[in-house]
Write a structure and sequence with these properties.
Elements: H1 4-16, H2 23-38, H3 45-57, H4 65-68, H5 71-88, H6 93-99, H7 116-149, H8 160-181, H9 189-205, E1 210-211, E2 216-218, E3 221-223, E4 227-229, E5 234-241, H10 244-261, E6 267-274, H11 281-285, E7 294-300
Parallel strand pairs: 5-6, 6-7
Antiparallel strand pairs: 1-4, 2-3, 4-5
């Protein structure tokens, strides 16, 4: 749980890092990460229980076939995950149980010739309904836990000041050093990722991250993050903007990535390397950075 000592430690790190990043940028990042640390502390037990009950109350309205295929069910699942992560912590049994629920069919199945898609749709829907029931049970268990122990005793998270410090270090590297190590104008995203990897290793993160190795399955798609820092539960994902049509494409890609990646990793840093296409960086980031624990850094060549 966050306390004043923890917050003071993070603020001290931000002050020490001001020489490495611009003062205005530092304040923005500091505020965003500090907000993440104090988020749980602002809730009392009754408020936490009411939040979970509100998610349970939505389940009956999610059971139709139409809702199972819509973004409404996806939003409910992500909202619920983020709420229980805030209340119980990312390492809690409640969050682990929720993450273990399948909302789509996985496995082999038999079907009549010419009816594979119909049978898969049926199995997906049955799995989805079963998942909603399981989710309801997990959430009700969470409420029981809160009623027994109170919110002060249920949180199972990480050493947030250290995590915030390392997140800030990564953001600082990207913001202040990435452009300097890319001397020639890149032609593809791989060149940007090569430069990022070199920066991370040079900053002492060797062994702390993996590159393009982890697979995250979400909504029948397979996502492969560029860099995963498992210990601090952070993903760094790069996007390369070299033509006008990429600007709109990237916004869609980033929003899709956020939904998928935050099922496993709460902290997301998107590095957009722009070679002269994006005219209004603030407009590009508008709405994306309002999402919890998401940072966008646009680096211009």
């Amino acid at each position: 749980m966050a306390d004043q000592t923890s917050l003071d430690a993070v603020r001290s790190q931000f002050i020490l890092s001001t020489h490495a990043i611009g003062h205005k940028s530092t304040k923005v990042i500091a505020k965003r990460i500090s907000n993440s640390i104090v988020r749980v502390k602002k809730l009392n037990t009754d408020e936490a229980i009411n939040l979970i009950r509100a998610q349970i109350d939505q389940i009956d309205n999610l059971e139709s076939v139409e809702k199972s295929l819509s973004g409404i069910s996806t939003k409910w699942r992500l909202d619920t995950l983020l709420i229980i992560q805030d209340i119980f912590g990312k390492n809690s049994d409640i969050v682990k149980a929720f993450n273990a629920i399948n909302f789509e069919f996985v496995g082999n199945f038999e079907y009549d010739r010419g009816y594979r898609e119909q049978e898969l749709f049926r199995l997906d829907y049955l799995t989805y309904l079963k998942g909603l029931l399981e989710a309801k049970g997990v959430l009700e268990s969470g409420i029981s836990l809160l009623e027994r122990k109170g919110i002060e005793s249920v949180y199972d998270g990480k050493d947030t000041p250290k995590e915030a410090s390392e997140l800030l270090k990564i953001v600082s590297l990207i913001e202040n050093s990435l452009r300097k190590v890319i001397r020639d104008k890149p032609t593809k995203e791989k060149e940007v990722n090569d430069a990022l990897e070199a920066l991370f290793i040079g900053a002492g993160f060797d062994g702390e991250f993996s590159r393009e190795k982890e697979h995250i399955e979400y909504s029948s798609k397979n996502y492969i993050p560029d860099f995963v820092f498992k210990r601090i539960e952070t993903i760094v994902e790069s996007k390369f903007c070299d033509k006008p049509e990429r600007e709109k494409e990237m916004i869609g890609e980033i929003n899709d990535d956020i939904v998928a990646y935050q099922t496993k990793y709460p902290n997301l840093i998107f590095v957009v390397y722009d070679v002269g296409v994006i005219r209004d960086a603030d407009k590009f980031k508008e709405g994306i950075e309002n999402q919890k624990s998401v940072i966008i850094k646009i680096i211009k060549h």
